[in-house]
From TrEMBL:
Condensin complex subunit 1 C-terminal domain: residues covered: 928-1088
Signal peptide from the UniProt entry: none
Region (Disordered): 467-493, 808-833, 1152-1220
InterPro entries listed in its UniProt record: ARM-like, ARM-type_fold, CND1/NCAPD3, Cnd1_C, Condensin_cplx_su1, Condensin_cplx_su1_N
Gene Ontology annotations of biological process type: cell division; meiotic chromosome condensation; mitotic chromosome condensation
Compartments in which it is found: Chromosome; Cytoplasm; Nucleus
Compositional bias (Polar residues): 1169-1183
Function: Regulatory subunit of the condensin complex, a complex required for conversion of interphase chromatin into mitotic-like condense chromosomes. The condensin complex probably introduces positive supercoils into relaxed DNA in the presence of type I topoisomerases and converts nicked DNA into positive knotted forms in the presence of type II topoisomerases.
Main location: nucleus
Protein name per Swiss-Prot or TrEMBL: Condensin complex subunit 1
Length: 1220
């Protein structure tokens, strides 16, 4: 029997009685009978195949009807059976469809039910549907048109599945792919294109996670199924959305943007015809859409519109897209600017940027380094690094190296042009041109001679035209082949030369822009933002690898970051140095080692002590690791140091210092070659290079870093090392400044390594004193300076030896004695000693005894009459106290430094000479003496803080020294003392604040670093601000308003807490009462305007109205306070905004009319309370406010006078006070 099968609109239509031959469900099976019916269905499927569904369709419908009450096993079995039926029909239907037989559509419906209910079987059902719909099933319907209801039945299931939140996850990829292919079949074969495009837009508006899914789907539909129109439909719908619609949709905007961006990355070539629709969003308010469109443009430029094979249309599109991207480098939103820079980075990395645009984009990128947004700055640094890494110009970029070749080639080009101009034929004026020039003059003639002139002109014209014919005939003759070839060759050479000159100019421009970028990025190495610092470090590595001029400066500047507390920054610097210097290139291990040594030596040339210490941290890590290069590197270093390979003096010094760094990781590197060091650097030729000798001594001292818990490592006094050292120091009567630094390191090494170093140094002093007698007075001064410097070194290291080495040895011996006694004691005694040890009695008393012993030795024995050091102290005092008599610079410097080292010995010596030391600090004519004195006094402040405390003001006074080096030393020393809590922070810090406007940039950065560190201490700057303001606004200082404002802007940037702001408002308002000049009023008002005022702070400002209201007539007070109201009004709530407006009106009224003519709120309240007593009040004549006596007080308040109470003082209005 055959039926007319009509696809029902809903499931219930299958049970309704239809027409003749129309199929309906005959019997709905009850739930309890379903298992038995399913068994029959299974048996029929095995025996009859897929066509058994004609008899058992009622069973499948019954399961669907009783879905909620049926058992899970029943539903799973039904789904499996229906999938098998649909799969079987898909293979057997083609023959049936050709004979227009029955069946088909109901299977799609049956499959759909499983699709909706079982997650685990979705993929099978979808594959079955795809298999079915790929058949030509149009013959199942009249007129061979598939009904829309059938298509909707399948598509609704697909779109419902896509609403699942997990559909975009990786685990859902098979299901996702089946849905995409199923919809692709429907779009291609069943006219679902329009419906799909509308549904894509609708789902994107509500489900943000579908952006990547639909981007993949649209790409598949347009490529694998050839339906390119779907892209146009979807893009047109998105492009037509206005800014208002996008603002309302919220998350839909993100989904649209993500969809566009991902679709552009999948099929950029298909996006080009539709990009004009999206370009309109670049002018919209949605920054997310602007980013997406820019990313699409970038993908097109990288993957489609690149290369030399573009036609004119493609080139025009490329140039237009690049212009658009460049415009959005200055977009109003930082996110757009950052993403456009990232798009350019991808373009540059793909080598898709035309050469003619390099310079322009580079200049714009360097400008973005000053952007306020951190993300934009990071993206700009990354783009600049990409420019350098993929630049088409040269592997080595240096504007200095390019200058000479450019001048040479430019001169050559000019000569070639001049030569061509000389050989060029003389220009012949055509007759027609001559006639055109003569005709106006011929026509302007007098009327009297008009006829004669015309006749003459006609004759001239005839003559010229005949001449013209002759010249044209000669021009039409064919040229000589030989001359034409020469001319073409010369033109070709000229064009080549022009291209070469242009290339060199572009290269020089690019190199200059890179050098400019380097100077900006180097300053970012010490920013507080970790990610920016990391990008700056990577950029420094890139420019160094490409040998850009001045690139080593950045590499050296980032070296101190190895001490950074931020692990990410420290690791970035270590990895950078490892990449640049510790991973050398070479064919053999020997070549790699030589390259590594060359690189490190170059870095150490002219390096400061701080740089060497930082580099030591990295090199030590290299030698501490298990690298196969270590032994070869050490061998190369010894060869350079000993001179086996011809090297310069600087390289020898670098080699010996690097050996010292290696010795800190492995002591035997130096200890096994101690004789070599002594013979090469400290032997007979020591006087030729004291710097090499000094560095060798530093290297030898590195072996003392490995002291174990046992007895300290010491060498006997008669060791060759000490013989060489004493001889070099005693006989080194040279005027070299290097001798002093060598002498200091030599004495230090003696105290570190020698047995009984005090005896050895005593003999050294005697020998030096005996050998310092010479006739020449100038030489005597130098020798005396060396002797005094040696005395100071011995005194200093003797104290250090007692307090470190001797004290450590006493502790070690005491520990051994206690362990030995512990073993000898019985159990009862052991328990008693353990109890005393727990109470801290034994160790504490023993340590106190040892410290007291050391202190007593320093105070009584070191400078006793029988001690040699005592003999030099009077001489030091006499030299320092008589600068007129002892005016030699070296002598004065050495004596001052030695006296300070003597003062370290004991408090008594310090107290006796402290006044002399400060006199030298203030009055010495030599800046180096003043700088040394500051350093020495800083050390003395740490050692004897109570003695130095009264002299603190004198230390701060050096911050205003006229010599920059002295100011720099002073701020460095004071920074250390203040941040280590050695000095109490008081109002004198205002002297450091003045250095924020110092003309020397380095001093300014040191002062800025001081306040940055001070701000990390709780409330430190907040407590100091009122006193700093009073001191800086003091008329006697004479600071300009501009400088004061600059300093205050920096200091107030550290005030971030609301409570601090509130309290400062009150403190500053109270200072108006003690300020006595208009300038001080203006400075206080300006300070108030710099605060980040909040609602509570504004309330406090209103409460303190009486403090400043009588000064509002001054514009310098009124304008800053008015600016406060402007700031408060931004984003304020209506109620608070009304309060601000009222306060502003009050300010303006007092400023324009004066306080006496403006009623205050307090006056209004009092009038309301007093009621009828107003007339009596009016009749009283108050005395003028200006006639009241004022107490004269200085604007600079002492600490005791600074207002400490933060609660407002309750005051009545001025008129009320006068009335009462």
């Amino acid at each position: 029997m055959s039926w007319d099968f009509l696809v029902p609109v809903c499931v219930g239509d299958l049970v309704k009685t239809g027409g003749i031959n129309q199929y309906v469900v005959q019997d709905v099976v009850p739930p309890k009978h379903l298992p038995s019916y399913l068994s029959k269905f299974k048996a029929a499927l095995r025996s009859q195949g897929s066509l058994c569904i004609l008899e058992h369709f009622d069973t499948g419908y019954s399961v669907l009807q009783h879905c909620n009450s049926a058992e899970l096993a029943v539903k799973e079995d039904t789904l499996e059976l229906l999938v098998q039926v649909v799969s079987g029909l898909a293979s057997s239907l083609p023959a049936l469809l050709l004979s227009t037989s029955v069946s088909g559509g109901k299977k799609g419906k049956a499959g759909g039910e499983g699709l909706l209910q079982w997650d685990s079987e979705r993929e099978k059902v979808l594959q079955a549907l795809v298999q079915l719909l790929q058949l030509d099933i149009r013959s199942l319907w009249n007129l061979s048109l598939v009904e829309e209801e059938f298509i909707s039945c399948v598509t609704c299931c697909c779109y419902k599945l896509l609403e699942n939140p997990t559909i975009s996850h990786v685990k859902s990829k098979p299901t996702r792919d089946c849905i995409i292919h199923l919809l692709g079949v429907l779009i291609k074969k069943y006219n679902h294109l329009l419906g799909a495009s509308v549904k894509v837009i609708q789902l994107l508006q509500h489900f943000e996670q579908l952006s990547s899914v639909f981007a993949q789907a649209v790409a598949v539909w347009s490529t694998e199924y050839g339906v390119r129109a779907i892209i146009g439909e979807v893009i047109r719908e998105i492009g037509q959305k206005s800014s208002e619609e996008l603002a309302r949709e919220g998350s839909g905007v993100k989904a649209f943007a993500s969809f566009i961006s991902e679709l552009g990355s999948l099929v950029p070539e298909l996006m080009i015809p539709n990009i004009s629709v999206l370009i309109a969003h670049l002018e919209g308010e949605s920054n997310t859409m602007r980013v997406a469109v820019c990313e699409v443009l970038g993908e097109m430029l990288v993957r489609v519109l690149c290369g030399d094979g573009l036609d004119e249309s493609g080139k025009a599109d490329r140039d237009r897209f690049f212009d658009t991207l460049q415009e959005h480098l200055h977009d109003t939103h930082s996110h757009v600017r950052a993403r456009v820079l990232q798009v350019y980075t991808r373009i540059v990395n793909s080598k898709a940027l035309p050469l003619c645009r390099y310079s322009e984009v580079m200049e714009l990128t360097v400008g973005r380094l000053m952007d306020k947004s951190i993300n934009v700055v990071k993206s700009a640094i990354q783009l600049l690094a990409a420019f350098i890494a993929h630049n088409p110009y040269s592997c080595k970029l240096s504007s200095a190296d390019l200058k000479k070749p450019l001048e040479k080639e430019t001169t050559k080009l000019r000569e070639m042009k001049e030569k061509l101009e000389e050989n060029a034929p003389v220009a012949v004026i055509k007759a027609s041109e001559l006639w055109a020039a003569m005709e106006p003059e011929l026509l302007i003639t007098d009327e009297k001679e008009e006829e004669d002139d015309r006749a003459t002109a006609v004759k001239i014209a005839q003559y010229l035209r005949s001449d013209e014919d002759t010249s044209e005939l000669s021009q039409n003759l064919p040229p000589t082949p030989q001359k034409e070839g020469e001319k073409e060759g010369e033109d070709g050479e000229l064009k080549k030369q022009e291209m070469l000159v242009q290339y060199l100019r572009d290269t020089e421009t690019f190199a200059l822009q890179v050098e400019r970028a380097i100077s900006v990025i180097n300053s970012m190495l010490y920013w507080k933002t970790t990610s920016v610092v990391q990008e700056a470090v990577q950029f420094c590595v890139t420019v160094c690898e490409f040998s850009v001029a001045n690139s080593v400066s950045g590499v050296r500047k980032m070296l101190p970051l190895v001490w950074s507390t931020d692990a990410a920054i420290k690791d970035a610097v270590v990895q950078a140095y490892r990449r640049l210097y510790l991973n050398p290139q070479g064919d053999t291990i020997r070549m790699k080692a030589q390259t590594l040594v060359d690189s490190l030596s170059e870095l150490m040339v002219d390096a400061s002590l701080g740089t060497i210490q930082c580099l030591e941290e990295i090199v030590q890590e290299f030698f501490g690791s298990s690298s196969n290069l270590q032994s070869t590197v050490v061998q190369v270093l010894w060869e350079r140091f000993t001179g086996k390979r011809e090297t310069s003096g600087l390289q020898r010094r670098a080699a010996v210092l690097l050996l010292g760094m290696a010795a800190r990781a492995e002591r035997e590197v130096v200890l096994s070659n101690l004789d070599t060091l002594c013979s090469v650097a400290l032997g007979e030729k020591v006087t030729e290079d004291f710097l090499l000798a000094r560095d060798a001594v530093i290297t030898i001292s590195s072996i003392t870093d490995h002291q174990s818990k046992g007895a300290p490592f010491r060498l006997p006094q008669d060791h060759q090392l000490f013989t060489c050292l004493t001889q070099a120091v005693a006989e080194g009567k040279h005027r070299q400044s290097a001798l002093f630094s060598f002498m200091e390191q030599a004495v230090r090494l003696i105290y570190f390594l020698a047995e009984s170093p005090d005896q050895l140094c005593s003999r050294l002093l005697q020998r030096s004193a005996q050998g310092s007698q010479e006739s020449n007075e100038q030489v005597n001064c130098v020798c005396l300076a060396q002797l005094l410097a040696l005395c100071g070194c011995v005194a200093f290291w003797q104290v250090s030896h007692l307090e470190r080495s001797v004290s450590a040895e006493l502790r070690r011996r005491r520990g051994e004695t206690e362990e030995r006694e512990e073993k000898e004691k019985g159990p009862s005694m052991a328990n008693e000693s353990a109890m005393e040890e727990e109470l801290g009695l034994i160790g504490a008393s023993a340590e106190d005894t040892e410290a007291e012993l050391i202190r007593k030795i320093c105070e009584t024995e070191l400078l006793a009459e029988e001690n040699l050091l005592c003999a030099f102290l009077p001489l030091l005092v006499r030299v320092c106290s008589s600068p007129g008599r002892y005016s030699h610079p070296q002598l004065t410097t050495a004596a001052c430094l030695a006296l300070s080292q003597y003062m370290m010995i004991s408090p008594s010596v310090c107290e006796e000479n402290i006044r002399l030391m400060f006199t030298v600090l203030e009055r010495s004519a030599f800046p180096v003496v003043r700088a040394n004195a500051i350093i020495a006094l800083g050390d003395l402040t740490v050692r004897f803080p109570n003695i130095l405390e009264p002299w603190t003001q004198n230390l701060y006074a050096r911050l205003s020294d006229e010599v920059p080096s002295v100011r720099q030393t002073a701020v460095t020393v004071l920074t250390q003392l203040v941040l280590k809590d050695v000095l109490k922070v008081k109002g004198q810090v205002s002297e450091v604040a003045v250095l924020l406007i110092d003309p020397e940039p380095h001093i300014t950065s040191l002062a800025l670093n001081f306040f940055n560190e001070l701000a990390s201490k709780d409330n430190a700057i907040y407590n100091l601000l009122p006193d700093i303001i009073s001191r800086l606004s003091d008329p006697e200082r004479g600071m300009t308003s501009e400088d004061f404002n600059t300093i205050m802007k920096q200091l107030f940037s550290y005030i971030t807490k609301e409570r601090q702001t509130e309290s400062l408002v009150e403190k500053l308002c109270q200072r108006f009462r003690t300020a006595k000049t208009e300038r001080q009023w203006c400075d206080l008002a300006m300070s108030l305007s710099l605060l980040s005022m909040c609602e509570r702070g504004f309330k406090r400002l209103q409460e303190c109205w009486e403090c400043y209201s009588d000064k509002l007539t001054e514009p310098g007070v009124y304008q800053p306070l008015l600016s406060i109201t402007a700031k408060l009004r931004r984003g304020a709530k209506p109620q608070f905004k009304a309060q601000v407006d009222e306060f502003e009106k009050r300010l303006t009224a007092v400023h324009t009319r004066g306080l006496e003519n403006v009623e205050s709120p307090e006056m209004d309240e009092e009038n309301q309370k007093q009621g009828g007593s107003t007339e009596k009040t009016v009749m009283q004549t108050p005395q003028p406010a200006r006639g009241r006596p004022r107490t004269k007080r200085d604007a600079v308040m002492a600490d005791s006078e600074t207002p400490k109470v933060t609660t407002p003082i309750a005051r009545t209005s001025r008129r009320a006070r006068l009335r009462n």
